[in-house]
Design brief:
The chain has helices at 16-22, 31-40, 66-81, 98-109, 121-135, 142-160, 170-184, 196-208, 221-228, 239-244, 265-273, 307-372, 380-411, 415-428, and strands at residues 4-10, 44-49, 53-59, 94-97, 189-192, 214-218, 234-238, 251-254, 281-285, 302-306. With 438 residues, the chain is an alpha/beta fold. The strands form two sheets. It has a six-stranded parallel sheet, with helices on both faces. α8 links the parallel β5 and β6. It is elongated and about 115 Å long. 34% of the residues are buried.
């Protein structure tokens, strides 16, 4: 684990402009990642770039130190992008190695380090990056295993806690409400207004149902046309005509700049009467002051979601998420311990093989000497019993140095194991299999 590291910058350390400058250009060729890894001295490598962070995860064959790491990474990025990619100054970067780097990866993939704690997108973005770099041949060892462990703890956070389950933004709440409606009804949706929230609403609908009929109504028809933007399943209408003759719809999302309610009680009743008795009319009012008469909530078969109500729910959910953070951090630390044990066991495997061979050879020579000298009087059955006893004793004795070596590596550094292996190689003139060294 010691040779794993991360260099990054995020919304915590840099401005939006600095993040944009640090992001690799969209035309950066996949093959250049192999060249970047080679120039920077990485044996495994993953680039994770989102709107809120730019991070380079890596593993080196040997311990990499901060100053040469940043020098080679800056120079390599500049060379491969013709200067288009510029990392911010060192004060706006973070560099982690070993356990700290792995802990950072676990927290990132679990959305504990996100601007909006618990947001769902980052895990998918990390998985996409992992898949890309695996296909490029830049993963396949310990860093690859570390990412799998990160996805495991992210899944635990998602399924065992409330961190990601409760929407904490207005857009996410609207998305959840619309998804539930679209799954239960086939009726069209009416959008009142032509601002950014209305555009976002249409995008949310299209993400869930690209063929759902949508009507966009605005006082300025040209603005409604711009929201529809050649969408074949959407129509743009003047707001006055919609209010005079309400279309048959199952949901209304209102977000106009009107200073008073524009959708009155009578209009809501008319819309509701056009629906089957088994279906409710969904009203989502995103305006302040409200676009929909609040008394509409009292009409049977009408479900009204107002912006104040949704903001209160979002704040309540945010508090519930924050209450779960300590539990999620404990999951991260637990997974770190599991990964460290697995990596130490992996690193100790070649040592155990070498020690087993050495102990077996010494025990065999000593036993054969005894069987030809002091124990030469033993019959075949007794000889086999002595051999079995020596083999069992050898296996138990091997555990003594292995436990000591594992304890030293756990309390100090896995370099203890690497140094031990090099000592064995120098003493015996043989080369142990060190492929698994972290």
């Amino acid at each position: 684990m010691d040779n794993i590291g991360v260099v990054g910058t995020s919304y915590r350390t840099a401005s939006v402009e600095a993040l944009a400058e640090a992001t690799l250009p969209s035309d950066f060729q996949p093959g250049n990642f192999n060249e970047l890894a080679h120039l920077a001295g990485f044996s495994e490598f993953v680039y994770l770039g989102t709107c809120n962070r730019v991070e380079f995860y890596f593993r080196g064959e040997n311990r990499i130190h901060t100053n040469p790491l940043l020098f080679h990474l800056r120079r390599s990025l500049a060379d491969l992008t013709d200067g288009a990619c510029q990392l911010p100054d060192d004060d706006h970067l973070y560099v982690h190695f070993g356990t700290s780097a792995v802990r950072h990866l676990f927290r990132v993939t679990s959305a504990l380090d996100s601007m909006m704690v618990g947001e769902a997108q980052i895990t998918g973005q990390a998985k996409d990056a992992h898949e890309t770099f695996h296909e490029l041949g830049l993963l396949g060892g310990i860093l690859d295993q570390t990412f799998h462990e990160a996805f495991h703890v992210a899944k635990r956070v998602r399924t065992e806690t409330e961190l990601t389950r409760r929407p904490v933004s207005l857009v996410t709440l609207v998305e959840r409400i619309l998804q539930e409606y679209l799954g239960d009804s086939s009726e069209p949706v009416l959008i009142l207004g032509a601002g950014e929230m209305c555009r976002q609403t249409l995008r949310l609908i299209r993400t869930a149902d690209r063929d759902r009929r949508v009507v966009v109504a605005n006082r300025t028809p040209e603005h409604a046309d711009s929201v529809v933007n050649d969408d074949p399943a959407a129509d743009a209408l003047p707001l006055e005509s919609v209010l005079l003759e309400p279309p048959r719809v199952g949901a209304v999302v209102a977000a106009t700049a009107a200073d008073r309610p524009i959708l009155g009680d009578d209009c809501v009743r008319e819309m509701r009467s056009g629906l089957p008795s088994s279906e409710s009319l969904l009203l989502v009012d995103l305006a302040m002051p409200p676009n929909i008469d609040p008394t509409a909530a009292q009409i049977e078969g009408v479900a009204l979601h107002g912006i104040e109500e949704m903001r209160s729910e979002a704040e309540h959910n945010r508090q519930l998420r924050l209450a779960e953070i300590d539990r999620c951090e404990s999951m991260v630390e637990h997974q770190l311990l599991i990964l460290r044990r697995r990596m130490l066991d992996r690193a100790l495997s070649p040592v155990a093989k070498d020690l087993h061979r050495s102990f077996d050879e010494m025990a065999h020579r000593a036993l054969q000497h005894a069987l030809t000298k002091d124990l030469s009087h033993l019959d075949e059955g007794d000889r086999q019993a002595v051999e079995k006893m020596v083999q069992g004793l050898t296996r138990r004795l091997i555990q003594v140095p292995l436990r000591g070596l594992k304890g030293a590596a756990w309390n100090h550094s896995s370099a203890v194991i690497s140094n031990f292996i090099r000592g064995l190689e120098g003493k015996n003139g043989t080369s142990g299999d060190t492929e698994g060294n972290p």
